[in-house]
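Protein details
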Amino acid sequence: MKRQLHVSKFAVFFVATALLLLQAACSKGTSEESVAGDMTEITVNLTGIEGEVSEELLLQSSAGRKSQSAQLLQGETQAYSFPAFDAQVEQPVDDDYAVNGLPKVNQVRNTAGGKRMAAVPLAPRVRYRIVLYRANGTFHDSQQGIVGSPLRINVARGETYTWYAYSYNDTLDVADLANYNNPVVPTGTTRDLITASGTRQITASGNTPLNVVLQHRTNRVAVEVNTMGMFSTLSAVTVTLGGNYFTSGTCDLRTGAVSGASTYTTPVLTAANLPNLPGTTTGDQKVAYYYTLSNTAIPTMRVTLTNLSVTPYGTATPRNFTGQQAAFQFNVTAFAALGGSKKARIDLIESPLTLGTARWARNNLYLNGNSATGHNPYRFYATNGSQTARESFWPWRGLLPSGQAGTGDPCRQVYPANAWRTPSPDEYQSILPTAHTFVSTGNRHINYTAATGIGAPYAGTQLTFYANGFGNVLGLIGGVLNVSLSYNHQNTRAHLWADDQVINVVAGIGTYFYLMTDKPAGVIPALDPAEQSTQVSVAVLNNISLLGISLLESGYRNVRCVRNPAVPTTTVP
């Protein structure tokens, strides 16, 4: 009996001890769980950029010389003829600061009269940094985030944090603060500093969102280099400014104030440093950005382009303009406040050939893919030669090769708009007596050897028209034009439209076209009855009577554009 009682007491002691240990273990687990439960996450969401103010950049002069007019008004253009290429500068409309090709939202007017944008989204993959401080001012954490990827930072429930956000609005790494006790960052020179700050109380349950809207802390000057008028992508260029026009300093993240502005050496930029114009991917619209803390005007900002190389669309061989340069001088008016942007656009244009009374395109006009909806659709062929593509045969004054006559001048649609137009009959007449040769072997063509202009890297200096034939309308099938290209005249005749807007074609009077036949000079060409001519020449200017003929039946011919003399042009040696 005693032995049994002793065993029972021992068992009771063992069970009690086990219960105490279990209770202690449970208490420890509850404590750790409680500590972990006091921590949560703050989820950062960069809503966008606000305070976008757009202003205009006025062109003052080019090639280091003042233009004839002190300033160009908005929308006006000035053209320059350099030896190897032309350039046209247009007074730009409002420039939207760092919209990155994304939708604009919450557009309102500001008191400065500019256009103010609120919460414009940042581009994907832009990097930014968030720095958190506890309520007592001690540093808590610093994390780099990427737009499009979630950023979560551990924080304590119920606490209030002061936060600072900053970015340079690009995909490069954002350096951490050099001193957490003094949160200041450099403003940058070719990078766009955007910052924001605030406080956020962490919720008692669930994650806490932090929506951040940043503001620009510098002004921006943008210089767009556009090669759409050369029907090429930009392969290489060097962009040099004629002075150190801009300033940089530091920005206090606590207040957003900038200070310590000092002039910096403006970097020389190459094509590798030039991003695509926001919203474009075609490589023919590049932009150089410069940032400054100064609001003052820069009345003589000189921009020089050298080492230009372009690659014509659809080819692999670049055109290198070695030794050529083009210099432009702009008047940057004063900024109303930090956060403004001004943009200059330089449109580079393929060099023409001069003959008679006009400056001629080197090759025929075509509509890329026979559609006006694509990128830069109105183009000149990169190389001249025999062409049978439907995209290069146009109705008289027709905007579409597959469309009707009389709808407009297709040459004026070539980028930049109105830089070119269809030749007048008088301009064609002016070249007929000039020196030329007729090539009757292979792909027949006529060369006007008296034309002047630069050769390399272009194919040559001769103005050449190939015997591509022409097209007739056979009728309408299901409402669609049924066009027959007269291949019996392929390689025997060149047909190119002239533009005579004075003549009322709709009334049935007629118009003109340039005609080259396969007959040598001195022999009267054997022409179709509709193309009778009494001129004795390898090339003549013919009248086509449209009396009683629908404009749908006017026929389809090639178009060779000339530079529009209505655009003032300054020749730069």
The CA atoms of residues 208 and 224 lie 42 Å apart.
